[in-house]
Amino acid sequence: MAVGRLPLASAAVAVRVAVTGAVLAAAGLGAQALTLAAVGGPAALGATTGENAAQVLHRLSTSSYGTSPTASWWWLGTAGRHSGTGPDLLHTGGSALVVLGLFLLVFAALDRGRAPVARRLLAPLVAVGSATLTLYTLHVLLLGATYDWDGLREIPPGAVLAAHVAVALAVAALVGAPRRRGPLEALAAAAGRAAAGAPTATPGSPPEPVDAPGRADSAP
User: Fold this and answer.
1) Do residues 135 and 194 both lie within one domain?
2) Which of 7, 37, 102, 146 sits in a 20 to 30 Å window from 126, CA-based?
3) How far, in Å, CA of 206 to CA of 50, rounded?
4) Same domain, yes or no, for 84 and 140?
5) CA 63 → CA 24, 118, 200, distances in Å?
6) Beta-carbon neighbour count of residue 168 at 10 Å?
């Protein structure tokens, strides 16, 4: 939300966002490296859970589904994916800022070059930005549907990625133009309006503009 209030059309701001993200991501991985060094390496950390060094490294490179081992406090200093630890949040949040900053630079370059064809090709990315709640919900459902729960089937990671891309493009087509809400976003907005006693908007309608703080016409 803080990034969204920045002047994102500025290339300098995009660079600062990307650099800040890189620093945060590096800090997360650095914290993990310090933790492993302090505890005596992956093998020593694995001794707390009955795992060897290779298993620990595998655990840190795959999804932890929102938790980390409770056998030792040292695990809270690791950056295992989706573990929810401090280093993990630094790494994932920083990585997101890097990607955001780079794409902002791409769009800034397209604006300067006035490249309509390239902008049309990137339009789906703009559209799905209005449906992040919908996309993340579908992402979780898709992961659950493709996960090898019983150990009897193994879906190649490439196929799972292709399915995610296809779903994202389908949502982009559903949302249509930028500035329109996704289905779950529209539902959440309608629920908020109903709770506040305000008129509800139809699903897919563009969000109403919000007056900037300090403007004379926004005073009660």
Assistant:
1) yes
2) 146
3) 53
4) no
5) 20, 34, 39
6) 18
